[in-house]
Known about the structure:
1 helix, 267 residues, Leucine-rich repeat, LRR (right-handed beta-alpha superhelix), elongated, mainly beta, 20 strands
Amino acid sequence: xxxxxxxxxxxxxxxxxxxxxxxxxxxxxxxxxxxxxxxxxxxxxxxxxxxxxxxxxxxxxxxxxxxxxxxxxxxxxxxxxxxxxxxxxxxxxxxxxxxxxxxxxxxxxxxxxxxxxxxxxxxxxxxxxxxxxxxxxxxxxxxxxxxxxxxxxxxxxxxxxxxxxxxxxxxxxxxxxxxxxxxxxxxxxxxxxxxxxxxxxxxxxxxxxxxxxxxxxxxxxxxxxxxxxxxxxxxxxxxxxxxxxxxxxxxxxxxxxxxxxxxxxxx
Length: 267
């Protein structure tokens, strides 16, 4: 997808469907607490836009006094120079460190969330990723320490590296039924107590669930043991139990990585 530079930061005000041009080059979206959102046009032909950070930022984060806060409702479309553009992406680093954000509502036009887009948003408590999203970049929610509820898109086939690392309040998560890959340190130091890996799972990477000290129940629905890094579960609770499909205990007991669980039971 062709991407245009920050100099194309669009100017739009979404008020009752009208468009008002502002010299400040900011696009105001449907955001509670009257916070501004900023956008780039990423494809003029297909009419696609992305949410981004202010164009003059050098460190990829908001100045403290300008940080958005409260519950953000992202628009499905914006209007620029009389034309409507779908909001398809959230750019990398867009809201990193904005710890005043308490909630987010995404629309079904969204296709991807960029690297570290919501990292270190300490007061973000819940996230629902719509079914339209196919990709979430690494570290996107890393360090969101009050994030306790996550619903992932059923279209996702992988959980990127460090995606929910250091999310200490995250005790449970429902993984997509088509998931194949859990990336390095994806849930490192998270608060997970239980996790269910679907039958489609193929590979669990280095330190994927490491240092999850509260993790006590790991369910794997795959009949054939997925490939797993030797330290994927390093540092979890010593009494954690691995649950596998009926008739598969022997296979998991012999499989590298899985045989590190001291207790393996059939479901």
